[in-house]
Amino acid sequence: MLTISLIWGIAVAICCCLWLIIGIRRRRIGEPPLDNGLIPYVGCALQFGANPLEFLRTNKRKYGHIFTCKLMGKYVHFITNPFSYNTVMRHGKYFDWKKFNFAVSAKAFGHRSIDPSDGNTTENVHETFTKTLQGDALNSLTEAMMENLQYVLRPPVLSKTNSDSWVTEGMYSFCYRVMFEAGYLTLFGKDLTRQEAQRTFILNNLNNFKQFDKIFPALVAGIPIHMFKNAHNAREKLAEALKHENLQKRDNISELITTRMFLNDTLSTFDDKEKAKTHLALLWAAQANTLPATFWCLFHTIRSPEAMKTATEEVRKALENSGQKISFEGKPISLTQMQLNDMPVLDSIIKEALRLSSASLNIRAAKEDFTLHLEEGSYNIRKDDIVALYPQLLHLDPEIYPDPLVFKYDRFLNENGKPKTSFYCNGIKLKYYYMPFGSGLTLCPGRLFAVHEMKQFLILMFSYFEMQLIDSQVKCPPLDQSRVGLGILPPTNDIDFKYKLKH
Ligand code: HEM
């Protein structure tokens, strides 16, 4: 027994020495300061994961505006000076912005690589996204979403029998349910042949989506989905519903999906199930951030009487100017993109809610060795290293946003009530001050639609319902830090509220 322990002890000691001699990276001249962390491979991932904002602030104080950390075998150069963001974008030719995203998508959703250079498909997904989420396509998406939101919100919640009584529900569950159903119908259309079973179908998808989404951070970290039996089943069921034969039964499918269903991709080696998994990736991109973001918009507004009053007034005026009245039985409300874009108070509320809840990581992989020239100096970057921006650092910087943790509904408004676009750090105007949708080549292609759908949700909620928090003094729930890097963080606990039809 003693001999076995001794052999194990020697083996571990040799491995540690080998790791110290060959495995550990040493900083070369011209490279940013380096933190290898204490644990082989893992590096600083545990400290980063525990509290990314604090970890980055501490390292910034220790090393300066740029430093390198080893995270799960990768060397990540963090750029923390917002004035350098612009310069980083200008080094685009040295970065492969797709590599990381394609790899994560394949790992999480279970399809092969969608990088055309790997030969499985000819589709330029980035082009497809821009064409089918912006421009003319945005009109039909926005129209469909408004119709679907009203389809979801009006019955049975607004049925005459319970129109006088309050309904109590968790606000996050409510936002999740309403936005998921309306969003799913908007992307994948309605099954007209089995209308009565529609809601059960969507609810099943919602439960599967929740189960799959819960383990998403683990999948991004590289843990295989087979370790999570229930989430794996949930993913397969979600994909099954998105197979061509099932989508064909649905009406009014968005261009985002039809373009890809009927893509003239003769070189594609994807079968139907694998294509369905790429549709699932889009469902995730469209919902995973929008659902918590919608909650934060509603929660912060309800908690601030002034925000609620000003927003409701803006909505009332917009409906009046468009000659429409709220009515349960009448025609659904419809607002054009122009009318939606002319609502600065709702815009400011949405921006402020996203500023407070967003924790995305903007990542670019270095295609080759190169020198990164920044405001504060030049730094050598090695091939395959990652350059990362963490916008939460600037979103919560008291120099840029005084009282950064306080929700101020009018923070993004000027004195004249028009949108405010000038923000300063140390007296100098910033180009990048608001980045929940990413930046440069990885800027979210669905951002315009996302803002429209959140606005539509708020418009309908403020118009149709009276709402109250069950505990009017309730504290703001903490952000769920386990999802840092993925975008908008959900609350760690739900908040009860009650709602009833406005008379
Ligand atoms: C509040 C809502 C949303 C937020 C905060 C958000 C944020 C982001 C961010 C930060 C990225 C870039 C990720 C990276 O750096 O690689 C991204 C990518 C993406 N988003 Fe969004 N998003 C939202 C809603 C939407 C919606 C509604 C859609 C579609 C209907 C959408 C579609 C996409 C797609 C397709 C990509 C991948 C783009 C590519 O790889 O070329 N997003 N989103």
Automatic annotation (TrEMBL):
Family annotation (Pfam families): p450
Assigned EC number: 1.14.14.23
Catalysis performed (reactions): cholesterol + reduced [NADPH--hemoprotein reductase] + O2 = 7alpha-hydroxycholesterol + oxidized [NADPH--hemoprotein reductase] + H2O + H(+)
Listed InterPro entries: Cholesterol_7a_monooxygenase, CYP450_sterol_14alpha_dmase, Cyt_P450, Cyt_P450_CS, Cyt_P450_CYP7A1-type, Cyt_P450_E_grp-IV, Cyt_P450_sf
Cofactor(s) the protein needs: heme
GO terms classed as biological process: bile acid biosynthetic process; cellular response to glucose stimulus; cholesterol catabolic process; cholesterol homeostasis; regulation of bile acid biosynthetic process
Family label: Belongs to the cytochrome P450 family.
Protein name: Cholesterol 7-alpha-monooxygenase
Source organism of this protein record: Vombatus ursinus (Common wombat)
